[in-house]
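Before relying on records like the one below, remember that each one covers exactly one chain. Contacts with other chains, cofactors or solvent are not represented anywhere in the record.
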Amino acid sequence: MEARDELDTEEAFAVIRQLAKTAPGAMLVLTGGEPLLRRDLARLVKAAGDRGLMPVIGTNGTLLDTAQAESLREAGAAGVGISLDSSRPHFHDRLRGVPSAWNGARRGIAAARNAGLAVVLQTTVFEENRHDLPALADIAEQVGAMAFNVFFLVCTGRGVTQTDLTSASYEETLCEIVLLQNQHPGMKIRARCAPYMRRVQGLHAGESGRGYADWSSACLAGRHYFRITPQGCVTPCPYIPVVIGDLRTEPLEQIWNDNPVLVSLRNELPGGKCGACDFRYSCGGCRARALALHGELLAEDSKCLYVKPQGRLPEAALSAPQGSDVAWEPEAEERLQRIPAFVRGYVKVHVEKQALQQGMNTITAEFLASRRPPALAGLPR
């Protein structure tokens, strides 16, 4: 079933050309809805790969069989993100509203791995399933997922009918994710739509560690990514329903560089406690939640329970990213670039940390091959 007024194949090709021009080498997540319902999906994947983009599929997994997984891999897909919201079928099937959706997702995961596609397991966390995260992390590791993404609900769109976590539960869950990462060092475990994670880990702007690069900070909306709707409209993120452009009538480059909403998100501090916080640059709160709760993109994110300690100054402006003390030989750098973009930064930090622990200041291709996290086994070297 097509979305109303959905971009046709030729229009989608035109968007891909604009993406490749505006953001060379970027990761393109083809998701939905359910992208596997598009008959031209493999053609779109190939077009994106041919233009130097890194196409990734976000799916519920139920339609992903062996033939389709192999078709996507041959077309150039770097990997798939598959949703699994519980370690057992009941909650997942009830949330999805489809009997046997959990079994279908598990079959899709197996088909992707058998076809040689990288797999990222994805979970949306609710009060009912947040204590299931350790079991889900175990499943992710068992199936050979390279990452486990934990998405925190933003109550917009259809999400307004769901139950959001309390602020205290949100904080407890972030701490649980930190523990899970320590227990699964070979697999990246990430909190999504949770800029508070850097604050939980005590990482200020410009600081790296614990799998976070020095540049990874704050809400990404309109800064490092954006959404294109099925109709070709652009919004700052999937959870911010503010249309800032129409690719049927406006060039992407102009929207990305000049749109006043994006310029504001990149250059202005948020209001309220977020703007005065001692993590205001390294976190700054979720802009989608600010909009949902207060009607303003730059309002404070009142979902966060953190209060700046008395007497502590607001965080200083983000410094320029600090270069690593570790150099990369050209062949090692070239191999690093073959690793899917959604885990490349993590791999770089992981390998550089291993090198420094061994007193090395140059990473060779051989060292990279021997120190890559186990979840990357079978992917391009």
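The chain has a mean pLDDT of 88.
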